[in-house]
């Protein structure tokens, strides 16, 4: 079974591997890489059987909230459901933006978004509400006062931040403390062997403030799944085939070297390539949970193997070294005197 981990210093516990719903359903902005409802049903059932009790979605993921609400209904008291607010559900049309009250982190937008998610999820509470991205047009104290009200009403249990600058994370935590509001308990960040930017500011901030780290895109948009080969175009239908600009970003000498080492370690353990990349993250002290996205049962089985895989200290150090990013100021300067 998959162990549970505490989110920082809070009472929130998540399964070490969470199931992400970004590609659940054919509607919405990710419909081109989406999964049919019948496949989603099997994937969710398999995840529950494997011990995953934490599920991540967002109001902008098309049909995802409705599908998860229906599939998790009878398990509601045994699972953690997380969703997000910030972006408009309806895309801008005819050159006009949607009404301001439908997106952003203003008091009205947050409350309206939460009410909509509760209806779609067919539940009376959201276990973790993620602020999907910072909003520089709204004072964070206003946002926190809205989430405080929702928490007091029992509609939200915990608050998390995603896609925030490091200084905005600090501001949110300290403003909450100053005004005696419910503070964020976790950060959701992209982090993988081919994308370690979050280690400069956000991972240290999480450790400093006692926040849990929930990781999205842990396989670098699927680059670390093992299905891509150097010098070959991504297979038709794959995520990086749909997003060629993303593939171009990962198609570097450094990243192919990283993948080569991951493949070698996977072969040594007779484990899936993706499981090694995920196990590297699960070995990080600040990580509470890693969100995996699966479009097939086979993909989910490969990813679940990470929960059973234990990398040696030498293997972790090997992966740390081959994927070591080029640090910029001030990280590079500080790193000469203090270990990250």
From TrEMBL:
<dbReference type="InterPro" id="IPR050523">
    <property type="entry name" value="AKR_Detox_Biosynth"/>
</dbReference>
<dbReference type="InterPro" id="IPR020471">
    <property type="entry name" value="AKR"/>
</dbReference>
<protein>
    <submittedName>
        <fullName>Aldo/keto reductase</fullName>
    </submittedName>
</protein>
<dbReference type="InterPro" id="IPR036812">
    <property type="entry name" value="NAD(P)_OxRdtase_dom_sf"/>
</dbReference>
<dbReference type="Pfam" id="PF00248">
    <property type="entry name" value="Aldo_ket_red"/>
</dbReference>
<feature type="domain" description="NADP-dependent oxidoreductase">
    <location>
        <begin position="17"/>
        <end position="323"/>
    </location>
</feature>
<dbReference type="InterPro" id="IPR023210">
    <property type="entry name" value="NADP_OxRdtase_dom"/>
</dbReference>
């Amino acid at each position: 079974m998959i162990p549970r981990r505490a989110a920082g210093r809070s009472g929130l516990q998540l399964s070490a591997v969470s199931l992400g719903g970004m590609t659940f359903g054919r509607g919405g902005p990710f419909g081109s890489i989406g999964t049919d409802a019948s496949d989603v049903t099997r994937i969710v059932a398999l995840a529950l059987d494997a011990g995953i009790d934490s599920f991540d979605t967002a109001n902008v993921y098309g049909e995802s909230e409705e599908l998860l609400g229906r599939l998790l209904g009878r398990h509601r008291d045994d699972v953690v459901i997380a969703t997000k607010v910030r972006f408009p559900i309806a895309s801008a049309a005819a050159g006009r933006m949607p009404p301001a009250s439908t997106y952003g982190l203003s008091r009205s937008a947050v409350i309206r978004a939460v009410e909509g998610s509760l209806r779609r999820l067919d539940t009376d509470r959201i276990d973790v509400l993620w602020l999907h991205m910072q909003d520089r047009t709204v004072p964070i104290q206003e946002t926190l006062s809205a989430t405080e009200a929702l928490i007091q009403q029992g509609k939200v249990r915990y608050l998390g931040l995603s896609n925030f600058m490091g200084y905005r994370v600090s501001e949110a935590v300290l403003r909450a403390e100053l005004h005696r509001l419910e503070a964020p308990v976790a950060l959701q960040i992209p982090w993988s062997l081919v994308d370690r930017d979050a280690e400069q500011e956000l991972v240290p901030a999480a450790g400093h403030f006692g926040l849990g780290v929930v990781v999205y895109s842990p396989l670098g948009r699927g680059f670390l799944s093992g299905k891509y080969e150097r010098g070959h175009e991504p297979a038709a239908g794959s995520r990086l085939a749909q997003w060629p600009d993303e593939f171009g970003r990962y198609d570097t000498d450094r990243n192919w070297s990283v993948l080569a080492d991951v493949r070698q370690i996977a072969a040594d353990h007779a484990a899936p390539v993706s499981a090694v990349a995920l196990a590297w993250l699960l070995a990080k002290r600040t990580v509470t949970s890693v969100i995996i996205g699966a479009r097939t049962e086979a993909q989910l089985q490969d990813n679940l193997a990470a929960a059973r895989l234990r990398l040696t200290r030498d293997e972790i150090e090997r992966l740390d070294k081959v994927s070591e990013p080029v640090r910029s100021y001030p990280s590079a300067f500080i790193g000469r005197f203090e270990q990250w």
